[in-house]
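Please review this pair:
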Amino acid sequence: MIFFLIILLKTLRMTCSCAGKRSKRRIKNYRRNSIVPNEQEPPKVGCREVNAEFMNNFVKEAMVCGYCENIFNINSGELKVHCNICNKFFHCGIAGECLGQECAVTDEYGNIHRARYCIGCVSKIYDNQTCLCKDCSK
């Protein structure tokens, strides 16, 4: 029975012109997830002009303190520390600069900059706004 069907299909292909193999046309298609270059030059990212309008919009932005969770504007001058461990901004609850060697960075002019931390990310706090972070105390 199966043999008979195979022979019947072969004879239909031979007699019918539309049932035969068609030649494939080659059209250059782009994949869906590929990047197709445009003729126009794309705008450069990150090269915005800093003008008065940009600064006015930037100063109006508000931030949340990581310690007391109060909202304050950047223009208010209350922003004091960005903690290196928890990556939050603080205007209170500040432990100070770390005295460890791993937290000190020297710039090209010879100035030493030290990482600053919040109260929750330090192991020991000293009296003169200095501390020892959890990473340096190990």
